[in-house]
Amino acid sequence: MATSMKHPRRLLDAYRFPGFRPLVGVKGVFGDPKARVVMLVRRETTKKPRPKPGRGANPT
Predict the structure, then answer these.
(1) How far apart are CA 27 and CA 21, in angstroms?
(2) Which domain of life is it from (predicted)?
(3) Which of 3, 21, 32, 37 has its Cβ near the most Cβ atoms within 10 Å?
(4) CA distance 11 to 19
(5) What's the pLDDT score for residue 54?
(6) Residue 19's pLDDT is what?
(7) pLDDT tens for residues 6-48?
(8) How far apart are CA 32 and CA 28, in angstroms?
(9) Cα-based angle 39, 11, 26 (whole degrees, multiple of 5)
(10) Which residues lie below 8 Å from residue 37, measured CB to CB, with a gap of 6+?
(11) Where are the beta strands (DSSP E) in 10-58?
(12) Within 10 A of 22 (CB to CB), how many other CB atoms are there?
């Protein structure tokens, strides 16, 4: 019997955005039993802009 089993989607799959990944742990909010906080971590660091040609590295 060849049945295709789908993997159940996790809460973390719903909060996966380009450039960010969710942490495994989910935190609750004090006073609200149904509220959850999903922490997102940036996948890569932001790149610094390069100096434009014709202008010095020191803008002052």
Answers:
(1) 16
(2) Bacteria
(3) 21
(4) 18
(5) 67
(6) 86
(7) 766 777 778 888 888 888 877 888 888 888 888 888 887 767 7
(8) 8
(9) 35
(10) 26, 27, 28, 29
(11) 20-29, 32-42
(12) 18
Q: Assign 2 a pLDDT band (cuts: 50, 70, 90).
A: low
| Residue 54 DSSP code | T
Classify each residue of 1-20 as buried b or exposed e, where b means 16 or more C-beta atoms within 10 Å of its C-beta: eeeeeeeeeeeeeeeeeeee
Cα dihedral value 51, 52, 55, 60, nearest 10: -40
Task: Say which residue, 4 or 21, is predicted with more confidence.
Answer: 21
Cβ pair 35, 28 in contact under 8 A: yes
- Residue 8, pLDDT score: 67
